[in-house]
Amino acid sequence: MSAKVTKVAVMTSGGDSPGMNAAVRAVVRASIYNNIECMGILRGYQGLIENDLIPLDSRSVRNTISRGGTFLQSARSKEFRTPEGRAKAYENFKANGLDALVVIGGDGSFTGAMVFNEEYGIPVIGIPGTIDNDIYGTQFTLGYDTALNTVVEAIDKIRDTASSHNRLFFVEVMGRDAGFIALNAGIGAGAEEILIPEEDMGIERMVESLNRSKINGKTSSIVVVAEGERSGKSVFELADYVEENMPEYDVRVSVLGHMQRGGSPSCFDRVLAGRLGVKAVDLLVEGKSNLMVGINNNKITATELEKAVKLHHDINTNLLRVADILST
Ligand code: ATP
Question: Is 212 a residue whose pLDDT tops 90?
Answer without folding.
Answer: no
